[in-house]
């Protein structure tokens, strides 16, 4: 594999900031922005006054819209996060932003046989005290009586348990689950949180993701874990239209999408029910925490890992 992987998103000038944010939230080390609006500024400058002769048209540039090129280090396996980036960019329309073609392309990943590429990158990882993520091809046995195995095929979807946002959610589950609860997993991705919750003793789980493709990939991972056989997975946008409540609602999704989810979660949780959120980059954490407090939630704990935040919130009773 190359040391760096280049991922480019074709979008519009108005969506540059939002797309850049999405790329940074997914682990990009830096971005290069090629925006037609910047090029227009160059064309309108009076270069002669600066004592320079510049043929602006000869400067390489995009003809329309903007292209944002992100650079990912070798520690990030880019094919895994492409679907999540595509989904997040496409989802900007929900916030009134036109993301344009929203075409995602990658370069500098050489044509390694994919199966060996996965096997090079993924090995059993103990992600919390009790939970270990094991790739589907590894014959791994628990090392202690308390260890719980989550079997995943990392090729199926974003969220192999190794990303900080997933780890924070797994830690949050480990903190609050006592056994016998009902749970809703919003934006289930690879299904990892639902599998972990079953291993920790949750009784019934409903898992949702935006489209059937995401749901199908989550099902493949759930099928690798017999304990998760009864998890119900269905396509749904956040909790729109969901009327049956649950004791725990967990969401590892982009910070922007947590905001509209907050009132939905409040409506579906019982008194003392838990709302666990992750996917929150450091800069967005104060806004998300403030929005949860404004809705009435009590913040029990914030978890951090690098630049990422997870929040354990609870719906208080009258005596709290």
Automatic annotation (TrEMBL):
Subcellular location: Cytoplasm
UniProt keyword Transferase, yes or no: yes
Family: Belongs to the methyltransferase superfamily. PrmA family.
GO molecular function ontology, one term from the record: protein-lysine N-methyltransferase activity
GO biological process terms on file: methylation
Pfam family, one: PrmA
Enzymatic reactions: L-lysyl-[protein] + 3 S-adenosyl-L-methionine = N(6),N(6),N(6)-trimethyl-L-lysyl-[protein] + 3 S-adenosyl-L-homocysteine + 3 H(+)
Presence of the UniProt keyword Magnesium in the record: no
Role: Methylates ribosomal protein L11.
Name of the protein: Ribosomal protein L11 methyltransferase
Binding site for S-adenosyl-L-methionine: 166, 187, 209, 252
CDD domains xref list: AdoMet_MTases (cd02440)
Keyword line: Cytoplasm, Methyltransferase, Ribonucleoprotein, Ribosomal protein, S-adenosyl-L-methionine, Transferase
Domain of life of the organism encoding this protein: Bacteria
GO cellular component: cytoplasm; ribosome
Taxonomic path: Bacteria, Bacillati, Bacillota, Bacilli, Lactobacillales
EC number annotated for this UniProt entry: 2.1.1.-
InterPro entries assigned: Ribosomal_L11_MeTrfase_PrmA (IPR050078), Ribosomal_PrmA_MeTrfase (IPR004498), SAM-dependent_MTases_sf (IPR029063)
């Amino acid at each position: 594999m190359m040391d760096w992987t280049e991922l480019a998103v074709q979008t519009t000038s108005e969506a540059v900031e939002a797309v850049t944010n999405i790329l940074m939230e997914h682990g990009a080390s830096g971005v290069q922005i090629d925006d037609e609006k910047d090029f227009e500024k160059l064309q309108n400058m009076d270069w002669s006054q600066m004592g320079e002769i510049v043929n602006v048209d000869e400067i390489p540039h995009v003809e329309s819209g903007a292209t944002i090129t992100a650079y990912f280090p070798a520690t990030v396996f880019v094919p895994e996060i492409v679907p999540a980036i595509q989904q997040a960019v496409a989802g900007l329309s929900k916030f009134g932003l036109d993301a344009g073609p929203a075409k995602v392309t990658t370069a500098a990943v050489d044509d390694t046989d994919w199966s060996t590429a996965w096997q090079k990158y993924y090995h059993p990882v103990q992600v919390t005290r009790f939970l270990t993520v094991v790739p589907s091809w590894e014959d791994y046995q628990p090392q202690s009586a308390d260890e719980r195995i989550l079997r995943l095929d990392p090729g199926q979807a974003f969220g192999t348990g190794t990303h900080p946002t997933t780890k924070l959610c797994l830690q949050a589950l480990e903190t609050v689950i006592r056994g016998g609860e009902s749970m809703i997993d919003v934006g289930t991705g690879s299904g990892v949180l639902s599998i972990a919750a079953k291993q920790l003793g949750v009784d019934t789980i409903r898992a949702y993701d935006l489209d059937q493709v995401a749901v199908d990939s989550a099902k493949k991972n759930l099928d690798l874990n017999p304990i998760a056989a009864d998890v119900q997975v269905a396509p749904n946008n956040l909790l729109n239209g969901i009327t049956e409540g649950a004791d725990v609602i967990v969401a590892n999704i982009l910070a922007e999408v947590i905001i509209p989810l907050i009132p939905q979660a409040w409506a579906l949780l019982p008194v003392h029910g838990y709302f666990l959120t992750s996917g929150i980059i450091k800069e967005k954490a104060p806004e998300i925490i403030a929005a949860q407090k404004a809705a009435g939630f009590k913040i029990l704990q914030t978890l951090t890992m690098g630049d990422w935040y997870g929040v354990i919130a609870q719906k208080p009773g009258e005596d709290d």
